[in-house]
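Annex B.
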Amino acid sequence: MKLFPSLQLHMPQIDLQEIMEHLRHNEERRTYPLWQEDDCLCFIARGREYRSEFHLNPSHEMQYSLKGDLHLHYRTPEGVEKVAVVPEGHCLYQPPMVPHSPRFAPDAFQLVIERKRRPGEVDRFHWFCPSCDNLLHEESFIVSDYGADPVSRAYDNFWGSLDFRTCKKCGTVMSDR
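3-hydroxyanthranilate 3,4-dioxygenase: predicted structure tokens.
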């Protein structure tokens, strides 16, 4: 007789060092999804030194600095940009819809855990003018599979358009990457 008949025992072990080594030698991908379940997704990310956008994620998010320090740029409800430094071995818990931009060195790694998106939830990516801080552009994605790398898709759309990178308020053009 089973004491817990509805319990599913699928508990994979993951070698984080092996995955970090794989990402270190893979120039095409900077993320590696570990799992995507109904209520939880987890991935490892390598180096986000190039990030300039602010991601608005509809779920809570936990970021653990596996290797190197994370400089999490975020915007307060008043729109002021601040930076939280998360040293190696530490983690940060972030509420939903906080505009954030995780930036860390090419040889640094983050373990990220968040809730898989529910039907109809939308992720947003915002870029701001480097001169006057005006909103330059917003990209929106329904993220049903994090393996599809929505951040790269948002970046491709943004950097591919001179119009998106040109400030409507002061005329500044954000330099190309």
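The first helix runs from residue 16 to 24. The first strand starts at residue 31 and ends at 36. Further annotation is deferred to the next reporting cycle.
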